[in-house]
């Protein structure tokens, strides 16, 4: 048998064919099923990433495979089962829908692009979707992170995976990355409208908690900008909502292990608010653009139970942006800015384009 080639064979190419531009929307990932085996495969990939767990491999890998995966897989699968939908994992359902709506918005705005979505861990993988974009003729690819706030544990891991893929490619396309949009005006506006819509329907709370995914505190001391970008998002959102000081709290959830993580922690914050006499609390999760296990189970279920058990009277979880029309518009505008200079824009009448974008947003809102 001949030795394996170091680089992949390129997809068929016809001389003279027009080059294409691709957009790859990347989210964290999800197991394929809410079963222990599927969750174990997912956690093995996720927790095996050195970007996620910065512990020497000789120490961490035996602990991961010998203790954590055997104990945690079944428990996590039971949690996933409580949020699973007939369509599958909520995170995957919403990310796929966002990619389709983004394709429509960009197309109606006059951009000829190919939009796909991928998961950093699980399926569809980043490598498989980059392969698909190349096979469709993409010579330029914009990698769009679903994480508004940059973190080495998330955003940089996407960059790592794209780089790993590129090392196997003979004809590497032009690559660009959207690493952050934590302070983007459209993103903040979409968050504010989402919260205001909930308040118009259910009334305002006594206190609002903005819960972000946590990371070890040491990452802040080592120079990761995630904590600062979460704080910036919180301040901008609170200002846009006109919140008075003391009426809202920014916290961090999903702590794992015994190390100190970014504080304050979300669940103890909810308990403290209840014990302080706060009757109703609303929780929004600005760092998650799609609802997932961390929002639907950890916040909407566990957080609710903790708040009510501590004496709170009413708990409201405000859903993530998901397929909200204002969010799709913001995502489209972010994408269009980062596509600048690439020949994707089709000549068209500006008024016709504006009307087409409005139709695309109306279609997204109807869904």
Based on the model shown, name its key terms.
48% helix; Rossmann fold; alpha/beta; 4-stranded parallel sheet; 367 residues; heme biosynthesis
Brief digest:
The chain has helices at residues 36-47, 57-83, 90-108, 126-135, 155-166, 185-202, 217-221, 226-241, 266-275, 293-296, 298-309, 325-338, 350-366; strands at residues 20-29, 114-121, 138-145, 174-178, 207-213, 248-253, 280-284, 314-317.
Please provide a written account of the structure:
- With 367 residues, this protein is of the alpha/beta class.
- It has 2 domains: 20-182 and 325-366, Rossmann fold, CATH 3.40.50; 185-317, Rossmann fold (3-Layer(aba) Sandwich), CATH 3.40.50.1400.
- The chain is built from 13 helices and 8 strands.
- Helix 5 links the parallel strand 3 and strand 4 (174-178).
- Helix 1 (36-47) crosses helix 2, helix 3 (90-108) runs antiparallel to helix 13 (350-366) and helix 12 crosses helix 13 (350-366).
- The N and C termini lie far apart (53 Å).
């Amino acid at each position: 048998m001949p030795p394996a080639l170091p680089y992949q064979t390129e997809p068929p190419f016809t001389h003279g064919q027009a080059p294409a531009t691709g957009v790859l929307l990347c989210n964290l990932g999800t197991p394929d099923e809410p079963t222990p085996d599927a969750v174990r495969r997912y956690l093995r990939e996720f927790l095996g990433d050195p970007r996620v767990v910065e512990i020497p491999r000789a120490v961490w890998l035996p602990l991961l495979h010998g203790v954590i995966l055997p104990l945690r897989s079944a428990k996590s699968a039971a949690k996933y089962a409580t949020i699973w939908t007939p369509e599958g994992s909520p995170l995957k359902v919403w990310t796929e829908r966002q990619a389709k709506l983004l394709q429509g918005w960009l197309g109606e705005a006059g951009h000829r692009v190919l939009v796909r979505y991928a998961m950093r861990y699980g399926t569809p993988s980043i490598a498989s979707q980059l392969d698909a974009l190349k096979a469709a003729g993409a010579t330029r690819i914009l990698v769009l992170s679903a994480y508004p706030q940059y973190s080495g544990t998330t955003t940089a891991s996407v960059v790592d995976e794209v780089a790993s893929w590129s090392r196997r490619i003979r004809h590497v396309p032009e690559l660009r990355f959207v690493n952050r949009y934590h302070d983007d005006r459209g993103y903040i506006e979409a968050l504010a409208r989402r919260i205001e819509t909930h308040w118009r329907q259910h009334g305002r709370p006594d206190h609002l908690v903005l819960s972000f995914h946590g990371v070890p505190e040491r990452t802040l001391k080592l120079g990761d900008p995630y904590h600062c970008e979460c704080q910036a998002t919180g301040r901008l959102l609170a200002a846009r909502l006109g919140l008075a000081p003391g009426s809202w709290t920014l916290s961090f959830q999903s702590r794992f292990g015994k190390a100190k993580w970014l504080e304050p922690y979300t669940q103890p914050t909810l308990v403290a608010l209840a014990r302080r006499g706060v009757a109703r609390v609303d929780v929004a999760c600005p760092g998650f653009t799609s609802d997932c296990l961390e929002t639907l189970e950890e916040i909407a279920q566990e957080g609710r139970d903790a708040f009510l058990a501590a004496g709170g009277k009413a708990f409201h979880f405000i859903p993530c942006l998901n397929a909200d029309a204002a969010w799709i518009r913001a995502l489209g505008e972010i994408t269009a800015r980062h596509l600048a200079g690439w020949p994707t824009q089709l000549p068209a009448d500006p008024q016709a384009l504006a009307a087409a974008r409005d139709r695309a947003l109306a279609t997204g809102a109807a869904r």
